[in-house]
Each structure stands twice: as structure tokens, then as C-alpha cells.
Amino acid sequence: MPQVNVPHADLEAELARYLAAGPSEPSGAYTAAVEHRVLPLFNDFMGCWALDMSGHLVFCAWEEPETVTPVADRPVDAIGIHVALALGSTRYPALAGIRPARPTDAVSCRTCDGSGRIPNVPENVVCACGGLGWLPPSARGAA
Asked: Are residues 73 and 14 in the same domain?
């Protein structure tokens, strides 16, 4: 299960700020945050990618907001993990350290041609690279 190295106090502080702001995104993400003490990083069409308070990446499907599933460190999840960490690092400045670092064998993103933005689409549409312009080597062939 992917885990990030973030001080527990930083996660708790960001979760407290998130909860104090009230629901402003899909209700399932806020419900998961309240019920499971997870910090939502990124919402996709299937559910919410989040960090639990020990720094483990978890997923909450929209159809089952009462269930939080640990994310497996598998190639099929590589892009979701990458995007969640990339976007979470910009969403919560205190968590900037979770931003993926580009390895030497990274795969240039073909969707955005390495720019991090998909041409001719609205700003709220996120590229498969999470706006970084590259994908982890474990995502080879997935995007």
C-alpha cells in the first residue's frame, strides 16, 4: 500500500481545515473525511483518492462512501496514485512533499505532450499525468 512521509500533525491540521470549510465537493468525499478521518486529495469519476492519518493512500468509491479501501501498489493503480499525489500536493501546500519526483525513467505523457495541460479542454479537466507532464515507469502502456 502506498504511503507518503508526511508528519501526522500536518495531516491532522489539513484535515481540520478541510472539515471546517464544510462540504464543497462531491458529498461522498466529505462524508469519507468525516467518517473515516481521511484527507481527500483528488476526486475522479469513480470516487475519492485520499490519505488516512498515517499517510496511507486510500480510495472511497462514490457508490460505497461508507467503505474506504487501501490503494494497492499495482501498475493498474499507478496513474491514479500519481495524479492523487500530484494534485494533493498543490491542493494542500503543507503537503508539498508528497509531489511525485520525476525519475530518470519517467514516461512522457502522450495526452498532453509533456505540458501538463490537455489542449482545448476546460481548466478543470485534469490530464492523466496530474499536470506534471510525465508518468511513472510503472504506468507504461496504461495511458
From this structure: yes
**Same domain for 105 and 94:** no
Q: How confident is the model at residue 141 (pLDDT cuts 50, 70, 90)?
A: low
What percent of the chain has pLDDT above 90? 56
Are residue 84 and residue 121 in the same domain, yes or no? no
143 inside domain: no
Q: Is the pLDDT confidence value at 138 over 60?
A: yes
What is the model's pTM? 0.87
Cα 117 off chain centre by? 17
